[in-house]
């Protein structure tokens, strides 16, 4: 996470490093003018200042106290390409206010108190590409209010009070690619609500009070690449819940209440690469649950109530690289499941009550033979049998994973499931038995001895030593948590400043970079969440 945060910070620094040349001529007080850009931010303005140069292409009026825009407010600014009115006190958008701004390409109206948008408010903005209306008081999208915006590619309506989406809400937005609708508590989404935006690629409806996936509303989204439905009240994933989204690559369903999931819930998602189902109420993974997603690379199933993973749950997912099953109630991991994870690079089973017996032996052998890393290995420990309580799974040699009375008939065949077993030992094979951060006496503890009673005596004498190591591990985890909290604090501070950075970027006559900043905000949110 830290490396991603650093990368994002460097990118933000690069974005704000562009400077405009100082302009000739005067400038209306209290604004500052540079070239064709005029800055009037944080000036305590209650109205649009007069005397703005007619050649102005970028006008920043954000963070003021403007509550009303008269019809002629921008009448002498025909060359304006970018206008920022965010963080003011506007309550409505009339039909005449933007009439003369025929060359406008991006418009920020976010963080106001807008309750009403006139049907023809954007009639002349045929070149508008980005429209930000988030964090207002809109209760609905007026029919026809956006229909003339045929060039619009990004629309942000998040954090409003919109409850219903009609099938006419997005009429005319034929080029729309990104739509933000998060933090609106929808009570009804009509069938075909997105039929007018067939070219949509990214749709965000997080925190939307959705009780189910509006399958018929999504039917026409054949070009969708990203769909986020996190933090809703979805309880069931029916068969082919995402029918018609054949190009979908990223699907987020985290923090819902999903307890039932059809084995065909993801039918048709052959190009899906990222699936997030964490923090739901799943209790089991059925055979073939992900059979319809052969391109899946990252799968998040952590923080559910999963007690059982069926043997072929991940069958036909040959490209799976990351699997997170941490913080569930899993006791064992079937041999057939292990065999299906041929290309896995990272597996997280931490926080599960693992039963370290013969049924977990295939997983333990696989950890030696495969190229995958066991994430959070310090927290991937045994709960039974009692002699292994608290012991790390990757430390105990495979031959010590036994069942009382021996293996069930024919069960020894499971030891042959490792798809990547090599004739020569890997680095992990040569080091996993005596990791540097555990007691070196573990080797003798699990030595091949015919006298099992002697082994038990030796084991009991070492438990005190192991408990100290566990306590030390707990202290290290607490220290890591403090460091992670500090990092999240830094990320939160950066998020608060992104809006200010947007001011600088747009002021430098680089309006297309606002989309980059929007993407940065989404990435920062993901880093902070993870």
Give the SSE map.
Layout: H1 2-15, E1 32-34, E2 37-39, E3 58-60, E4 82-84, E5 92-93, E6 106-108, E7 116-117, E8 130-132, E9 154-156, E10 164-165, E11 178-180, E12 188-189, E13 202-204, E14 226-228, E15 236-237, E16 250-252, E17 260-261, E18 274-276, E19 284-285, E20 298-300, E21 308-309, E22 322-324, H2 335-339, E23 346-348, E24 354-355, H3 361-369, E25 373-375, E26 382-384, H4 427-431, H5 442-445, H6 452-507, H7 513-529
Parallel strand pairs: 2-3, 3-4, 4-6, 5-7, 6-8, 8-9, 9-11, 10-12, 11-13, 13-14, 14-16, 15-17, 16-18, 18-20, 19-21, 20-22, 22-23, 23-25, 24-26
Antiparallel strand pairs: 1-2
Helix pairs in contact: 1-6, 1-7, 6-7
In short:
The chain has 7 helices and 26 strands. Helix 6 runs antiparallel to helix 7. It has 530 residues and is α/β, with parallel strands linked by helices.
How far from one another are the termini?
Answer: 8 Å
Strand order of the largest sheet: 1-2-3-4-6-8-9-11-13-14-16-18-20-22-23-25
- Kindly provide the radius of gyration, computed on alpha-carbon positions and rounded to a whole number of angstroms: 29 Å
Q: What shape does the CA trace take?
A: elongated
Class by alpha and beta content: alpha/beta
Number of helices: 7
CATH C-level class of the domain at 331-468 is Alpha Beta
User: How many runs of DSSP E, i.e. beta strands?
Assistant: 26
Major sheet: 16 strands, mixed
Strand content: 5-15%
Provide the residue-averaged pLDDT: 81
What's the CATH architecture name of the domain at 331-468?
Answer: Alpha-Beta Horseshoe
Unreliable stretches covering 5 or more consecutive residues: 5-25, 418-470, 502-516, 521-530
Keywords: Cell membrane, Glycoprotein, Leucine-rich repeat, Membrane, Repeat, Signal, Transmembrane, Transmembrane helix
Region (Disordered): 417-458
Protein name: LRRCT domain-containing protein
Signal peptide: 1-20
